[in-house]
Amino acid sequence: MHMSEEIKSTGNTLQEGQQIIINQVAKKKSNGIGTAGFVLALIAICFGFTPLIGGLFVWTVGVLGLILSFAGVFKKPRGLAIAGLSISLITIIVKIVLMSVMFAGVGALGKELDKATKERAKTPENAIQSNGKQDISSSIKNEDFQEFIQKFKSDYDFQLSRIKFSKIGVSKGDWYFWDKNLIFSGFRTINGEEYEGKFSIYPEKCEYQLGIPFSGYLATLTFTKIDGQWYLTKFDDFADEDY
Predict the structure, then answer these.
(1) Of 107, 109, 65, 100, which Cα lies nearest the Cα of 83?
(2) Residues 187-231: pLDDT tens digits?
(3) Domains observed in the chain
(4) pTM of the full predicted structure?
(5) Residue 228 to residue 119: CA distance in whole angstroms
(6) pLDDT per residue over 146-200, tens digit each?
């Protein structure tokens, strides 16, 4: 073909002496998957340690960025994919370490609180409830007889609540109040008569005897500990020739 011939490749007529210049533009290659992984990795590391969105959001974005970056490494160009892979790994590793430290701290705090609670349970003030009333659940098992008998002879309602009427053979309506004038230790003159009161105290059973020496009169009150509390379970009021 001569240059003088008309060439209709572009729709124009080339004249003799004109030069044909062909510009070849090279197509630039891209790695979309690697780029997407890099962007997600940046988002994960930028927002991964903020209080509000640093939880499930980071794990989702970070893991997704790791997967996309890893897939992008096998395509060219690999630069952004490698960078995204590195950032994702660093973010996830740091997040795992921080969570491990946090859970270890929470576990240690829980142990300390449990230890403090057990220590507090051993202290005397633990016997006081938050409403200011005494918690008798623990002390009730070891009710002291001396404290019991003081209240028994000074509080009529309390005395009635601590008498097993079904066992003593006296009805509640016929019971007379054994107050401090009738329950004492030693000798005392009552209505012109000299009375003697004495206690026989044992771990689970106590007896109180009130009598007039050399008169044959003797009353006996027998107290028994039931479920940690003292109760009057036997009452004898009769003449004893040997007394």
Answers:
(1) 65
(2) 999 888 899 999 999 989 999 999 988 888 899 999 999 999 999
(3) 32-118 (no CATH), 142-239 (3.10.450.410)
(4) 0.43
(5) 25
(6) 999 999 999 999 999 999 999 998 999 999 899 999 999 999 998 888 999 999 9
